[in-house]
Design brief:
By secondary structure, the protein is α+β, with helices and mostly antiparallel strands. It has two helices and nine strands; from the N terminus they run αβββββββββα. The strands form two sheets. A six-stranded mixed beta sheet has the order 4-8-9-7-6-5, covered by helices on one side. The chain has a three-stranded antiparallel beta sheet with strand order 1-2-3. Strand 6 and strand 7 form a beta hairpin.
């Protein structure tokens, strides 16, 4: 009885695929934020958002994100990442970088027409980012009296 020998190429290809999938999941698993003096940079896998504090027009808490059509992105468990199209304004792009759909989200409108929905897995981190964005918004656009 002869036994067929498996080719090493297929085993190596399987291992490389598993490693690449693991790295992709790790990169998308959470939002990475870099806070600078004049901007916040968000990275979540292939999605990158540069948010200058001076361009923030509106900042509010929301419980749910509205129904939108996905252009690119993914959903897994309570994660929602990607670029969406608003059903009411089809020309507007909406960025969604939500680590936990069950928690409150920050809706940021910036550059007059762009919208970003954001939260982190840790609700304390989300609250601290909201407080920072609120302070920076007031610093760059003080309320007229």
């Amino acid at each position: 009885m002869t036994r067929k020998k498996r080719h090493w190429f297929w085993n190596a290809l399987l291992i490389v695929c598993l490693v690449v999938c693991g790295l992709a999941f790790t990169a998308h698993y959470r939002n990475w934020a870099r806070l600078e003096a004049d901007r916040m940079q968000l990275l979540s896998g292939i999605y990158y958002v540069d948010l200058p504090y001076a361009d923030i027009d509106n900042l509010v808490w929301v419980e749910k994100i509205p129904k939108m059509e996905r252009q690119s992105g993914f959903s897994a468990w309570a994660l929602e990442k990607g670029v969406f199209t608003d059903s009411l304004n089809p020309g507007q792009r909406v960025y969604v970088l939500v680590d936990d759909l069950r928690q409150q989200k920050i809706r940021v409108r910036y550059r007059d027409s762009l919208t970003l929905f954001l939260n982190f897995a840790d609700s304390a981190e989300t609250r601290s980012v909201y407080a920072l964005l609120e302070a920076k918004q007031k610093e760059y656009k003080p309320v007229a009296r």
